[in-house]
From TrEMBL:
Gene: thyA
Main location: cytoplasm
One Pfam family, short name: Thymidylat_synt
Protein name in the entry: Thymidylate synthase
Localization (cell): Cytoplasm
GO cellular component, one term: cytosol
Residue ranges occupied by any Thymidylate synthase/dCMP hydroxymethylase domain in the UniProt entry: 21-321
Catalytic activity: dUMP + (6R)-5,10-methylene-5,6,7,8-tetrahydrofolate = 7,8-dihydrofolate + dTMP
Length: 321
């Protein structure tokens, strides 16, 4: 007779690991094995190239990190702002979203010599429209390219005039509805001709959608990722966009597939890395969309409800400008 002894350990080992393990393992690998290099910001990073993180969106699950609090409403407001096509930080600052303020602030300080505090700069952007017009614009970044990619048409004698802009978001929703099997469902931010005019060239640059068995998946290619700060927002936003597009196309949410080119940790994020790697992920967040807006451009912040999110405390870390 053979007796099978099942250890608690081996049972635990057969359980699916928490999705966030992918993130923590990547963080650990970058910190211990990443190539240490001088980067554009001068802070220095450790970096690995070509990484993937996958998340199953079934049943309303959302990829919100639990090993630190992530301000998903801030990231959601940013996504809604992208979808308006706006590239001025004024509308963000007016909602208390300051994640883009440092870049216009940096330019203002450099060009005027006025060492204004960030909160005063932000308040002035909100209060003074002309000031915002002059100092608050990021150039033709994400929103502009997503909903109004510029086109030009011949105007005779070798001259060109502005044509109708391309709304890639509308086109993708339309192509998903009418031709779901297509391999061309893409929203692209990398407008080569306009990179110089942008405060930062797009990081989350390409979104590709895919329909299989009534489920909508999306793959993001992010050329450059600040794993300590940006990733939490980028992963959330990828899932959020996928959920919104799925709703508009009457599809079930599939998978969010995140891929990163240069994935890095800034050297001044040591205490964040140490603290976060000491924590265990637990629980899983879900999101409901409380109504079905008429189009991709009619969502409001109140439409999103997150449940089951009980994260560990926020870990502050400086942003490299
Ligand atoms: N170095 C760097 N990292 C980024 O993640 C990043 C850039 N630059 N430049 C452009 C945008 C701006 N994004 C940002 C900027 C700041 C935060 C940030 O400070 N997040 C804090 C607090 C968020 C809040 O105040 O609501 C966090 O702990 O997540 C996140 C994303 C993402 N991008
Ligand atoms: O959505 C975003 C936007 C930016 N980042 C990070 C990635 C880099 O750390 C910087 C951008 O610097 P580049 O020299 O242009 O690569 O911002 C992010 O992680 N997510």
């Amino acid at each position: 007779m053979t007796t099978t002894i099942v250890h608690a350990d081996s049972l635990a080992a057969t359980e699916e690991p928490h999705w966030e393990r992918q993130y923590l393992n990547l963080m650990h690998r970058i910190w211990t094995q990443g190539d240490e290099r001088v980067d554009r910001t001068g802070i220095g990073t450790r970096s690995l190239f070509g990484e993937t993180i996958r998340f199953d969106l079934s049943g309303g699950a959302m990829p919100l990190l639990t090993t630190k609090r992530v301000y998903w409403k801030t990231a959601t407001r940013e996504m809604l702002w992208f979808l308006t096509g706006d590239t001025n930080i004024r509308a963000l600052c007016a909602q208390g979203v300051e994640i883009w303020t440092d870049w216009p602030l940096d330019r203002y300080r450099r060009e005027t010599g006025d060492q204004i505090e960030r909160k005063d700069f932000s308040a002035r952007i909100v209060a003074d429209e002309a000031f915002a017009r002059q100092w608050g614009d990021l150039g033709p970044v994400y929103g502009k390219q997503w909903v109004d990619w510029p086109t030009y048409e011949p105007a005779g004698e070798g001259l060109f005039r502005r044509g109708q802009g391309v709304n890639q978001v509308t086109q993708v929703v339309e192509s998903l509805k009418t031709n779901p099997g297509s391999r061309r469902h893409i929203i692209e931010g990398w407008n080569v001709a306009e990179l110089d005019a942008m405060a930062l060239p797009p990081c989350h640059k390409t979104y590709q959608f895919h329909v299989s068995r009534g489920r909508l998946s999306c793959l993001l290619y992010q050329r450059s990722c600040d794993l300590g700060l940006g990733f939490a927002f980028n992963m959330w936003s990828l899932a959020l966009l996928t959920r919104m597009v799925a709703q508009q196309c009457n599809l079930e949410p599939g998978e969010a597939v995140w891929t990163g080119g240069d994935v890095h940790l800034y050297l001044n994020h040591a205490s964040l890395v140490e603290e976060q790697l000491a924590r265990e992920p637990y629980g899983d967040a879900h999101m409901a969309i409380l109504r079905r807006p008429d189009s991709m451009f009619d969502y409001r912040i109140e439409d999103f409800e997150v449940t089951g999110y009980a994260p560990q405390s926020h870990i502050a870390a400086p942003v490299a400008v």
